[in-house]
Structures are given as structure tokens and as C-alpha cells.
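Exercise 3.2. Students should predict the tertiary structure of the chain below and write it as C-alpha cells, then compare their answer with the key that follows.

Predict this chain's 3D structure.
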Amino acid sequence: MATWTEMANLQPTVSKMLTNSIKKDRVAHAYLFQGSKGTGKLQMSLLFAQSFFCSYRDGIEPCHSCKDCKRISSGNHPDVHVIQPDGQSIKKEQILHLQKEFTYTGLESNQKVYIVEDADKMTTNASNRLLKFLEEPNRQTIAMLLTENGQSLLDTIRSRCQIMAFQPLNPQNITNKLMEDGMTESTARLMSELTNNIEQAKEISEDEWFAKARKLVIQLIEVLQDKPSEALLFINNQWMSHFKDKDLMNQGLDLLMLWFKDVVYEHVENESAIVFIKERERIQTSTYHWSKQQATEALSAILEAKRKLVSNVHPTLVMEQLTLQIQR
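Answer key:
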């Protein structure tokens, strides 16, 4: 379970606002946590619940070891209710069940917390039932609504919540977090450049398709450097069979772009910014083949290739043209 120190590194503004409300005993009855997937909304809501229930907290920090903290962490606290979509949506019956639960006296205190994940997926009837619930707040009840799309919620629900905007995670923070969770530095750096979603980063790093994609990018670079006459053959025989549609092709181009950024970083001796750190020798070799100016031009060509994909230019034609531009 996260600590407030960790959350302050991931979401400094939201963490400060919430911890101040705890210190001043001015906790709102309803919060709307909005931000993209993987920005720490659920972690923050559970940590906030722990601070709300923990009898042994040190200032704002819950002890993380008492009965209340452990049960919140494991999802077994009788007075902390987490609602998730049932299939594709959160249904009226789920909100009715929640309301029924809250008519009972707290099993161990009068405090209650409910967390609604993917709150934007509530049906119209569920939203109306929740609104009624929010209109009759209890001093010792906290609601936390989590969403990637806050604008899709009823304005009347939004107006009754204190809105907390979760920002995209800082790449260095993502790298550090992934390394703490056991990922190698080279893989963590690469993942943090490709996504600001920690869970998605873990999924990508374990994907066999991605491992091969990474290998193909390095192979393409070697072909362009050592056997340029075979580059188009490589594109048609190996590259296109792996990057089969526009989305996959975009991922390949993202990796290729990171490579040429590393070439530029190597030229300007900005070692700390290099992503492909395990391939440092290959990056150095690439600097002999592409000057800083040429690497910068290659980056522009890759961006143009990505634009062509959006404009529905045939992917094979896009890659063939890009390959010829990089070879010049």
C-alpha cells in the first residue's frame, strides 16, 4: 500500500490538498478524482480511507499495520465499500445496495467510505440514485468517485464533489516506480517513454510481441547501417509482418523515434537522457553513421510518417518512403 510520501511524488498537488484537509479536519463529504488510467486514483482513495479510519496514524500517515489499515488494503473492511462496473456499466441496483448498506450503523464506528471506480460508466438510473445519495450527506461519510472522463458525469453530481485533477505521471517518477517493482533500469526507462500508465507499462514489458518489436527496431538500424541495399527487403519481409496495422505500426515508429533521439543525445553528450541504455555501444556506432543533423532529420521524417498513417496512406508505402529518407 502506498504512503503519502510516495503519493506526493506521484501527484503532489492532489496529495497536498488531501493531506491539508486531514490536518485541518476539513474532509469533504464527496470527492471526484479525475485523470487518465494509471495516475494513482485508486491508490490515493484507499490511502485516504486508511487515514480516515486508522487510530494509530502519525500525523497524516496511517500506520499501515493495524486491523483497519490491513483490511482496507486487502479490500475486506466492513465500512469501506468499493463499487466497480458490473460488466460494461455500474447499475442502479449496485447503488441501491450501497444505500441499503449505509442505512445500517457502522459495524465498528459510524464512519463509512465508498469508492466508485469508473464512475462515468454509471447508467442514467444509477447516476440519479447516486445524486440523491450525495444530496443527503452524512458528516462521517466520504464518497470518492474515480473516473477518466469527469465531463461525462452529471453536472449535478460534479457540483456536489470536490474535484481533484490527477496529472499524467512524470517519466522519471514512472521509471523509479517500475524499478522499485523489480523492472530493470533499461526496460523501465523505455516503458516510461512509451506510456505514463504504470500498469500498462508492466503489461507492455511482459508482452512477447513488444519484445520482438524492440528487436526488429534494432535489426532495422543495423540493416540501414551495414546493408542499406537490403533495407526495403527487410521492411517487406520482416517489419510489415509484425507491425500489421496502423496502431502496431505507430508503436514501431515510436520505438524508432526513441532510437534516433538517443543518437541526438549521444551527439550532445546527454547520457542521462538516453533510453536504450543497454544498447549504448550500438547508439555510439549510430553516431558515426548519422550526424546530429541527420538524426534530427530522421526524427522529422518519422513524425511525418506517423501523420501519413493518420491520413490513411498505405502502411507499406509509408515505411518504404521513410526507410529511403533515413538512408539519404
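Discussion points: The chain has two domains: 4-168, 207-327. The longest helix spans residues 246-267.
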